[in-house]
Write a structure and sequence with these properties.
The structure holds 2 protein chains of 2 kinds. By secondary structure, chain A is mostly helical. Helices cover 69% and strands 0% of the residues of chain A. The radius of gyration of chain B is 23 Å and the shape is globular. The chains are: A mainly alpha, B alpha+beta.
Chain lengths: 190, 264
């Protein structure tokens, strides 16, 4: 399989494998989420695999594609935990930002840049959750947390651990997915 | 119209796929991720330990203590019957289950166990581990169940001090600690006191140990607070026992409905 060989259009068989790999990798991320294997755990916090997937997907696609991926994976993560506050907001923002950053040429598509992007976006995703919880605290009477201070103190711990772990594990998921999508569509998708 | 038609011809497949993806994700969310939980259980089955492993760990000392507790409980039961108090509901155990997964997110404190409705685990059941209360079952699939830990900020449990009967409620703090808020202004409490669930907890049966008081903050408003060290080592727990329990009231009902229930 020479990646530089001209390919007219992916045929049905390639389409099938493309979807198989795409959906399979999402499923794999979902199944790894509840696991705490050695090296995937700092202060009881694990890497945000769905965020890594959204970044890998969005980085060579349009902002709309990124947002849709964020929405879909956010809903899936809600199904595994609790529906409110939703994870979809954070992942949509991550998808859009990852795609914009790359289009504006702020960042290249190498592994170090991707790790950096994931680090920043992990902070943003966790902040989105903390903002939602704060809004719930301010506007809703039965809030989960007893004070805004408690939310943001916990946010510091979660955001930093999650950002470090996610950025360290990002290449493990990003590299194979990128190679696969490149091989399937050498000119760059769409 | 023509441009719309042309756009549709070009993008129908993509739009369809996008809708399909979002609809699938929504469906999975509405079913509480049954499919994902079941797959996870199936895949991790080879790595799950068997109950015998736990029995091997139990040493003679624990057994001796258990015998003594049973003896004391029986005596207590007899004495209670003498003074004609309502019979204390003894906990029955549905099953022992291995913890196969942790929370899929950093903000919620949940665990996934490897037994579900097929082993008669149902929503509302409570889970205990070595050391005391762990949490309660919030969703089930045929072979897995999800437990909301008492360390989750959304867990609020009515508790009392075992020694002095001062009552309050605890709220999780996302770790192995929880905050106890007292109902009265001047509770009789000191560091080291044992906390157990109280009889007015709607979601949990009474007298299950929870933890010990570590520090007390008497300046908190409106009533004093205490920091409680939970007795269950949640971060390295491997097994939980599931006990059948039906909440005393429908916790999902609207507040107004609960009030009318009280009035009636």
């Amino acid at each position: 399989m020479n990646p530089y060989r001209p390919q007219p259009r992916p045929n049905a068989r390639q389409h099938f494998w493309n979807w198989f790999v795409t959906i399979g990798s999402v499923l794999l991320c979902l199944l790894v989420l509840p696991m705490r294997l050695p090296g995937m755990d700092v202060l009881g916090v694990g890497p945000n695999w769905l965020l890594i997937w959204v970044v890998a997907w969005s980085i060579s696609r349009t902002a709309l594609d990124g947002a849709i991926a964020g929405l879909t994976l956010g809903l899936l993560q809600d199904s595994l935990t609790a529906p409110a506050p939703t994870h979809a907001f954070g992942l949509i923002i991550a998808g859009v930002l990852a795609s914009r950053l790359q289009q504006r040429r702020f960042m290249q598509e190498d592994l170090v840049s991707v790790a950096l992007i994931v680090f920043g976006l992990a902070l943003i995703t966790e902040t989105t959750t903390a903002v939602q919880l704060s809004a719930q605290y301010i506007f809703d009477e039965d809030s989960l947390y007893k004070s805004l201070g408690a939310i943001w103190q916990y946010h510091q711990r979660v955001a930093l651990s999650s950002a470090i772990l996610s950025s360290l594990w990002a290449p493990a998921l990003y590299y194979p997915l990128k190679r696969w999508w490149e091989r399937l569509n050498p000119k760059g998708p769409k | 119209m023509f441009t719309l038609r042309r756009w549709w011809d070009k993008n129908a497949l993509k739009a369809g796929l996008i809708l399909l993806a979002i609809a699938t994700a929504w469906g999975v969310r509405q079913t509480n991720g049954v499919f994902i939980s079941e797959t996870y259980q199936l895949l991790t089955r080879p790595f799950q330990s068997q109950p015998s492993a736990k029995e091997q760990v139990e040493n003679a000392y624990v057994l001796e203590l258990q015998q003594r507790v049973i003896e004391l409980e029986n005596q207590n039961q007899g004495l209670r019957e003498l003074v004609d108090e309502n019979k204390s509901s003894k906990l029955q155990t549905t099953t022992m289950a291995a913890i196969i997964g942790r929370s899929a997110d950093n903000w919620w404190q949940q665990i996934t166990i490897g037994k579900g409705t097929q082993a008669k685990v149902k929503v509302g059941d409570i889970a205990t581990g070595s050391g005391g209360l762990v949490g309660r079952v919030i969703s089930t699939t045929p072979h897995t169940a999800r437990i909301l830990l008492l360390s989750d900020p959304s867990s609020q449990i009515g508790v009392k001090i075992s020694r002095s009967r001062s009552a309050g409620y605890i709220q999780g703090q996302s770790g192995e600690r929880a905050t106890l808020k007292f109902f009265e202004k001047d509770p009789d409490v000191k560091p080291g006191d044992v906390i157990v669930t109280s009889s007015f907890s709607r979601l949990f049966p009474q007298d299950i140990p929870i933890g010990r008081v570590s520090t007390i903050n008497s300046d908190a408003s409106p009533a004093p607070e205490a920091l409680v060290q939970l007795s269950v080592p949640i971060s390295n727990l491997e097994w939980v026992s599931i006990h059948p329990f039906t909440p005393k009231q429908d916790v999902d009902a609207a507040p107004a409905k609960i009030v009318t229930d009280d009035v009636l």
